[in-house]
What we know:
The chain is mainly α. Helix content is 70%, strand content 0%. The chain has two domains: 22-255, no CATH class; 259-478, Hypothetical protein af1432, CATH 1.10.3210. Helix 14 (304-313) packs across helix 18 (411-428).
Amino acid sequence: MKKTNEITKLNTTQKNGLALTNIEHGKIVAIFLATLCLMYSLTVAKFFVFNIKYDYIILLVLFVGLCVMLSSLFIFLVNRRKDKVSRVKILMAICFCMFLAYSTNIYLINLNTYSMSMAFAAFLIAPLTDKKDAFVSNIILILMVTFVNLVITIYIGNYEIIYAILGMSLGGIICGTLVSYTISKNTFRLNYVLKGLFYGILSFLVTFVFMMLSAQDAKLLGMLKADWFIFVTVISVTVFISQTIHPITELVFNILTDARLVELTNHSSPLIHRLMTEAPGTFNHSMAVANFAEVCANAIGENPYMARTAAYYHDVGKLINPTYFKENQEDDYNPHDELLPEISAEIIRKHTTDGFELCKKYRIPIEIAEITIQHHGSKLIYVFYNKAQNMTDQEVDKKLYSYNGETPRTKIAALIMICDAAEATIRSMAKPDGARVDKLLKDLIESTILTGQLDNCAITLKDLDVVRQTIKNIYGGIFHGRISYSDAKHKYNIKQ
Length: 496
């Protein structure tokens, strides 16, 4: 009955750690106020830059409009972002991009109506976050720009460009929507450029058709025909400027994108290079775990780039004491033979927190860094617990021989926990075969569930079954046997 209750808990997504803290509330409010103040300041400054007479009613209308639309965006983003890790920094990055797009568009209209880049927000935000965030942010930005430009245009009596503003907004919505849903987190930069240019030209055609159907003034339509090159140039510049800004935004806000994840797994990246040269056994283990994790992530619909990167970095804490871990030991010497079991347990246990500190030192994104602590959860270190138990007749405190990290909070962290244990255990088997590996995986997953390691993440029993089948199917490709050299010589008639 206890086992059934434990497994049933797994099917309910836990909410531990997902509620907003007071500090996080304060950060979100501060980001909102800072963004609102900057946008409103730019709006007011426009009246002075272009010598537009104003009254306080117009300024109040503009403030209320901006406040309402920006508030709706924040409510949407905060409610969608349940993970505390990425909520604040994603908000900061989106607000930064929104500010750039807003300031560009409310000033460029005074140079030429068709020089506005209404989909600029989508181009900036799409590679940084998911599709819905980019789509909604782009819509809100276009509404804000359209609202401000229309209010000022009507206020100064320049009615002839109203249709042009509406046409540009419609084109921006269509272009931005296509960008959000087809370029979001696209690893290949060339695809981004080509698709961006195509969507920009498409938005020009949409604007042109809208103007033909709606414009009351033939002069305005003639201006669009004459200034088409400005429109196309602006789109081209937008695409290339966005490509320049993306790496800067990723670095400043330490945001994970597929492109950033690929860069982090480059063997020349500082921490991975250290692992490869200072702890080669751990490096090889991490590569094997990465192979498991990437395929398993694909199988359950998670990001394979994230899974591979998390596997690369999950054991970097072993760099502090590499020779105290079996995979890095040469000959038959094991330094733990000379230590008390509680000291050995502390050294082994500490590699999770050491990994977290190393990740912070090398500015590895927090989503990856936290998995270094979570990939062992609160599991018991059986080798040294049993060694200690054999040295005394009294009951040994299990807490002294258990990892003191957090249990996994995400599916990826759970995957790394399972793949890490599976790789190490299968590798230690003398002759792994399908049946033995399958039983091992079933026992491993069941033990992980019963010890409460998966209580705080959303992974399901169905996901775990898929992971088990996936590892079982691919283990032979990594731990396959080799034909012996003597057999090869005989088979292929190789002479010495």
